[in-house]
Amino acid sequence: MTPGRLDFAIDVPVTSDWPNVEHLRSSVDRMIRLIAGDAAAGQTVSLVAAELAENAIKYGAWREDAGTLRVRVWGDYPHAHVMVESPVGTGDEVPEGLSKTLSFISAYPSALEAYQAKIAERADSSDGAASGLGLLRVSYEAGCTLRAEVEGATLRIVADMEL
Ligand SMILES: Nc1ncnc2c1ncn2[C@@H]1O[C@H](COP(=O)(O)OP(=O)(O)OP(=O)(O)O)[C@@H](O)[C@H]1O
Ligand SMILES: [Mg+2]
Fold first, then answer.
1. Is 97 touching ligand 1 by the criterion CB < 6 Å?
2. Cα four-point dihedral sign 39, 74, 9, 5
């Protein structure tokens, strides 16, 4: 392996009793530290991977029994990309909630401003709940850009970042 070249994938079975994504997050964190020797980079990439994986588990069209969640990380450090795939109905477009979130982020000059705008929106609304912030938060905390596409029955979300 070329030093600094990131390229690994983690495939984990998803079951209905999946407790949380902490083990996955810490695995990604350790892999980045191992390859790049950069603790901050490990934290950043694993934060993004964990949010995308949590969403994939929550919103993916998983079959009753189980499925496999794939998290892939690659790039020439300090460039990094994280990809998480999850199932959607065949021929579906990018799910509306996701495309709205990505449009919301790109409507602002920076992810931080998008995050602040969403927080302000929440503070003004009656429900005031803290949900619906995950992708906004990782976009600004990790400084990543997000894109999504559907191919067949698979939704693929990719985060691009500089570490
Ligand atoms: N893998 C996915 N499949 C389908 N829809 C998704 C996926 N990931 C995100 N979404 C949609 O995008 C929305 C925004 O995701 P985001 O992570 O920002 O917020 P959230 O998961 O609703 O709340 P939080 O992350 O704050 O708990 C989700 O509410 C969901 O509708
Ligand atoms: Mg989320």
1. yes
2. negative
Of the CA atoms within 13 Å of residue 117, those in its CB half-sphere come to 14
Q: How confident is the model at residue 4 (pLDDT cuts 50, 70, 90)?
A: confident
Does ligand 1 lie within 6 Å of residue 61's CB atom?
A: no
> Quick one: how far is CA 57 from the chain centroid?
11
Ligand 2 center from residue 129 Cα (angstroms) = 13
- Nearest ligand, measured from the Cα of 111: 1
The alpha carbon of 27 and the centre of ligand 1 are apart by a number of angstroms equal to 22
Residues 64-69, mean pLDDT to the nearest whole number: 74
State the pLDDT at residue 127. 65
All domains of the chain, ordered by start, with CATH? 5-162 (3.30.565.10)
Angle at which helix 134-141 crosses helix 96-106, to 10 degrees, equals: 40
pTM of the complete model beyond 0.90: yes
